[in-house]
Design goal:
CATH class of the largest domain: Alpha Beta
CATH superfamily of the largest domain: Cytidine Deaminase, domain 2
Radius of gyration: 20 Å
Strand content: 25-35%
CATH architecture of the largest domain: 3-Layer(aba) Sandwich
Number of strands: 12
Helix content: 10-25%
Distance between the termini: 13 Å
Number of helices: 8
Number of domains: 2
Length: 291
C-alpha cells in the first residue's frame, strides 16, 4: 500500500479550527444514508462552500449505488454537485468518511471533480471512529508527474518507434465537443506471458458523460482480450509535461484495477517523455485491496 496522504490531526485539534469539526461530523453522519446495498461500503462527505453575497454553508452527500455500476455516484461528488446546484460554486473544505474502513481516500473521479471546484481546498479524511483525520489539500490528490523530461532524440530506438505510432493515431480522435486530442497505448501480458500493445484515442459523445478517454479505450481493449498482467501505460498529453496532472481522474482510477504502481509514460506532441507511475499520479489510491 502507498503511504497515506497528509498529516494526522486529532479530533480535539479539529474543534479549534473554524467549521472543521462540524464538517467532519456532517460527513460521518451522512454515511448512514448511503445506498450501498451492493458494496456494503458506506461513505459520507461534506463540503464547506461559499456563495458570493451570501456566505458559507455546509453541504453533505453519501454514495448512491446503481445496478448499472457507471451510474453510481460517490459521496464527494454528491456533496459537491449539491452545493453547485444551490449556487455555492467555491469549495473551501472537504471531509471524507469511509465508515466501514476509515482512512480510505477518494477515487479518481471524485478527485477530478474536487480539483474543478476547489483545487486549494483543505481535505479532512477521517481515519477512525473517534473522528481523528488526515489533513491535506485537494491539489495533493492529482499531483503533476515529478520525473525529469527526456527529449525524444535521446530515447531508445524501440521507444521512439512506439511514440511515432502513438502520435500517428491522433488523426483517429473524435473530439468535436472537447477539442482535447489524446492517444494512449496500453501494454500488458496474457496468462501465457505474451506481451501486446493496445491503442486508444479520445472519443467524445454528445452526452459528455458518455465520452471515452484514450487511456480507458486502450485498457478496455486489453482486458477484453485477456491482457491484464504486468501492465504499462503510455499517454500523449499535448505539449505540457510538467504542469498539473495531465491524466483525468477516471482514467487513473481505471488503471488502478491493474495494480497500485503501474509504470506510466507521458509523451508530449514533440515525442519528449516523462517517466512516472500510477502511485505518483494517484497517491494513496482506492483500489480492489481497499474494499
Amino acid at each position: 500500500m502507498t503511504k497515506p496522504l497528509g498529516t494526522l490531526v486529532t479530533v480535539e485539534s479539529l474543534k479549534t479550527e473554524d467549521d472543521a469539526f462540524e464538517l467532519v461530523q456532517a460527513a460521518w453522519n451522512a454515511a448512514d444514508f448511503a445506498a450501498c446495498h451492493r458494496s456494503n461500503f458506506p461513505v459520507g462527505s461534506a463540503v464547506l462552500a461559499y456563495k458570493e453575497n451570501v456566505g458559507f454553508q455546509i453541504f453533505s452527500g453519501c454514495n448512491v449505488e446503481n445496478r448499472f455500476f457507471p451510474a453510481t455516484i460517490c459521496a464527494e461528488r454528491n456533496a459537491v454537485t449539491t452545493a453547485i446546484a444551490r449556487g455555492y460554486n467555491s469549495i473551501l473544505k472537504v471531509a471524507i468518511a469511509c465508515k466501514k474502513i476509515p482512512g480510505g481516500n477518494s477515487c479518481g473521479l471524485c478527485r477530478q471533480v474536487l480539483t474543478e471546484w476547489g483545487l486549494d481546498a483543505v481535505v479532512y479524511n477521517v481515519v477512525d471512529s473517534d473522528l481523528n483525520v488526515r489533513r491535506f489539500q485537494v491539489k495533493d490528490l492529482l499531483p503533476a508527474a515529478p520525473g525529469p523530461v527526456r527529449n525524444y532524440p535521446g530515447l531508445e530506438k524501440a521507444e521512439r518507434t512506439l511514440i511515432r505510432k502513438l502520435l500517428d493515431r491522433k488523426r483517429h480522435c473524435h473530439t468535436p465537443y472537447s477539442g482535447q486530442v489524446a492517444t494512449a497505448v496500453f501494454s500488458a501480458c496474457n496468462e501465457g506471458g505474451r506481451r501486446r500493445n493496445f491503442y486508444g484515442v479520445t472519443d467524445d459523445n454528445a452526452s459528455y458523460g458518455g465520452s471515452t478517454s484514450a487511456e480507458v479505450a486502450a485498457m478496455t481493449a486489453a482486458r477484453s482480450n485477456g491482457y491484464v498482467y504486468d501492465a504499462r501505460l503510455m499517454v500523449n498529453c499535448g505539449t505540457d509535461l510538467k504542469g498539473p496532472n495531465p491524466l483525468d481522474g477516471e482514467s487513473l482510477q481505471k488503471l488502478r484495477e491493474f495494480g497500485p504502481n503501474v509504470p506510466t509514460t507521458l509523451v508530449n506532441d514533440f515525442g519528449d517523455t516523462v517517466y512516472t507511475s500510477l502511485a505518483e499520479l494517484l497517491p494513496d489510491s482506492f483500489g480492489p485491496d481497499s474494499l
